[in-house]
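Residues determine shape. Take a concrete instance:
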Amino acid sequence: MKSTRIVTTFLTHDGRYLILKRSNKVKSMKNLWAGVSGLIEGDEEPIYRAKTEIFEETGITEDRLSLLKSAQQIRVDSQYENHEWLIHPFLFSVRDPRIVLNWENQEYRWIVPSELSQYQTVPSLDRVLSGLL
């Protein structure tokens, strides 16, 4: 089975958590809600990729972030045959919640965890978030 390593990061501010609606321009999971996420390239450290994706997708710089928690890698079946996602979860607090989206996402919301079930999300997003709370 082929595995693809990715990071999924949640940002929190004032008891709310950021979710992003993926655009229809991305390769997979179009128009689904997700955390800040991206493929881990080569042998780079997941924390490095998490911070890179946060900046690329939200415009939030590292000086506005504080790492609160990382969790054990989670295995999730993918939509492709003989393939799985290996998710590296992170939770950061944000001092300044201003967001500037890039092309990968079309909307964002700051929600409380109990509201996540109201959104059509990427697979196992609720599991990733609950592992960080």
